[in-house]
Amino acid sequence: MPVPIISVAQMREWERATWATGQTEQNVIARVGQSLAQHSLALTRRDDAILLLAGKGHNGDDVRAMRPHLGERSVQLLDVIDPAAALREIEIALKRRPKLIVDGLFGIGLSRALDAHWVALIQQINDARLPVLAVDAPSGLDADSGNAMPEAVRASVTLTVGAPKRGLLAANAAEYVGRLEVAENVGLIPCPCASEWQWTLPEDFTGFPPPRPVDGHKGTFGHLGIVAGSAGYHGAAVLAARGAQRARPGLITLFPQPDVYEPIAAQLQAVMVNPWCEGEDLSQCTARLFGPGLAGPVPRAVSEELQIAWEVCLEPVIVDASALDWLRPQGASGLRVITPHPGEAARLLDISAADVQRDRLAAVRALSRKFGNCWVVLKGRHTLIGRAEGEMFVNGSGDSGLAQGGTGDLLAGFIAGWLAQPLVQRDPLLALRYAVWEHGAAADRLSTRRTNWIVEELAIELGTGVAA
Fold it and tell me: Residue 446 belongs to what domain range?
């Protein structure tokens, strides 16, 4: 099950409800310490030095609880109560260049601006430019608003306890939070708090994809039609097709513009490639994807075909990239999905990209309302999946390594490849969430092996992960 994204007040309510069951704070702290230690071990190697910074609150207790579980790491624990007195000691520790700093100075309960000594200490940590694992929230960050108070630790990874806090997902918090991960199994009862925001967990996809029937044939798994590729952008069509193949629909037909037919067809084997012509019959397709690589000169008939499909097609229609600009505000007869990045979302809503990033949830709601209550996959840090109403799902996999040309084309194809399959169409939201999560998780797996992976490698890695 996904976990709700909550406020600090809701986190306190959750804790009180847990203590009322007889569970103790000491037991939860011990389990948080184990989780922190596991993450620290994953971020370092044998004999690496780890510097633990423990404040006087429960975050400090969490850090102290790590120490017995750090195995063969070289560990230094500093209890930081008086920042002025600790400055020199931390300066000396930082000069030893530990491979990881664990920040347990303050937690989510910080509600006042930090004084000059705390600001100096945090600046000292940030100036060292060393990897930092923050406990629950980076010290100095308001976990409700995402604002620094007035300075905050710039973490590489933040391991938040139980569930994400709203401020950790704010656009202005990104430079402090780094990668956000959740320690969800720490002894708390199931979260009693409601939220329209839901954080996706890998175990949400247990049992997905559904088993393929033993007597299944190509028709069982659908036929995806992809309208993509124009002069100068033929590679996007190839990547979309390869993304779709990783979802394994029964058939895929790609319809590029005629002038790029040859370079596209030369790169694909199992995918059927037919040059687009006006009046193209897509009626045999169980889903249609429009957009990747259609940024060059494209006949008006292509955009008209999309508009008709969006309005009357009973099968799923997925729209990506330049084709988003062809959409008209109108209702639809079947499953509809758009996959904008913030700049595209801004154009569709006639606002700035900064406005989109400032309130991504509102942008998703507005886009969905404008285009007939379609599903919206708003890409970016923590990609959002939702509609005009209902729960909004936040994805936590992937990182800025995905910020390279072609990854969006690959994702669009991967999404469409799943939604073309009748067995998967029964739960389109799960398919959307899985496609986005696996796309990011594939990038994460590549990043553990090499930092300079390219999109063609992502196309190979996509779909190899096994959900918990």
Answer: 218-461
